[in-house]
């Protein structure tokens, strides 16, 4: 039974034990995932506690929401993505690994869903200071991050304006982003051939992103690399963009 924490000296260890209990239960039921109701039944914890701990596990990249459902699964950050995941992950995975190794920074696979972007995968580089700007399963307005901006800039002007309008009431939450700044970033991305977005989704971070379109010229996926701003002078931005573009060419041959 889930009781309130009355002893503050025990609160931290108790929370950790409960979080690990949820994670272990998800790992033991990895084929189909579990709903919060199922987790409550299996662990004996109350649903508000489970929701709170699940949010922390998802944010930390240890668990993920199964797209289009109320189920959660333990996140597989293993050598090879799981077969149940979005096929774009398996396509991009070797490129993501190589980019993380070459740059030392965090690399993200991002896709578009309507007026939002969704992060599908994150690879962490070896540099000691990492900007973990997002995590698998996280949604945000399309364009506030470098991967989402790369996708947004591939759309026609009418679609761009529609998406900006749909997200207008949320943009200010991202470093004071405005519709005017969003339009300017789209133009900059089209001119440059890759996106550069800094200090919006995460303060002190700068990301470089490139997008790949499918045979119908629809944005299919984007890859971005994010680091602390000091590691991202203009020359390195260009170098990273070229590395991403080279990687996207290998993916394009497979779709």
Automatic annotation (TrEMBL):
GO BP terms in the entry: negative regulation of DNA-templated transcription
Classification via Pfam families: HTH_IclR, IclR_C
MF GO annotations: DNA binding; DNA-binding transcription factor activity
Superkingdom assignment: Bacteria
UniProt source species: Pollutimonas bauzanensis
Domain (IclR-ED): residue spans on this chain: 71-255
Domain HTH iclR-type residue range list: 13-76
Keywords tagged on the record: DNA-binding, Transcription, Transcription regulation
InterPro entries: GAF-like_dom_sf, HTH_MetabolicPath_Reg, Tscrpt_reg_IclR_C, Tscrpt_reg_IclR_N, WH-like_DNA-bd_sf, WH_DNA-bd_sf
Record-given protein name: Transcriptional regulator, IclR family
Upper taxonomic lineage: Bacteria, Pseudomonadati, Pseudomonadota, Betaproteobacteria, Burkholderiales
């Amino acid at each position: 039974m889930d009781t309130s924490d009355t002893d503050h000296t025990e609160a931290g260890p108790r929370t950790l034990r409960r979080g690990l209990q949820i994670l272990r239960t998800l790992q033991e039921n990895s084929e189909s995932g579990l709903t919060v109701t199922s987790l409550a039944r299996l662990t004996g914890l109350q649903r508000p506690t489970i929701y709170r701990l699940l949010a922390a596990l998802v944010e930390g990249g240890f668990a993920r929401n199964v797209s289009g459902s109320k189920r959660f699964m333990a996140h597989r950050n293993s050598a090879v993505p799981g077969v149940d995941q979005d096929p774009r992950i398996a396509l991009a995975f070797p490129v993501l690994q190589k980019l993380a190794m070459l740059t030392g920074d965090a690399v993200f696979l991002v896709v578009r869903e309507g007026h939002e972007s969704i992060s599908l995968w994150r690879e962490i580089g070896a540099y000691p200071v990492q900007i973990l700007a997002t995590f698998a399963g996280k949604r945000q307005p399309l364009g506030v991050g470098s991967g989402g901006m790369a996708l947004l800039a591939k759309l026609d002007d009418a679609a761009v304006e529609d998406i900006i309008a749909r997200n207008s009431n949320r943009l200010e939450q991202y470093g004071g982003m405005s519709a005017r700044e969003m339009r300017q970033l789209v133009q900059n991305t089209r001119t440059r051939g890759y996106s550069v977005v800094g200090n919006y989704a995460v303060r002190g971070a700068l990301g470089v992103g490139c997008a790949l379109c499918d045979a119908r010229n629809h944005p299919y996926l984007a890859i971005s690399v994010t680091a602390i701003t000091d590691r991202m002078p203009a020359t390195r931005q260009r170098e990273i963009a070229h590395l991403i573009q080279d990687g996207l060419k290998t993916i394009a041959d497979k779709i």
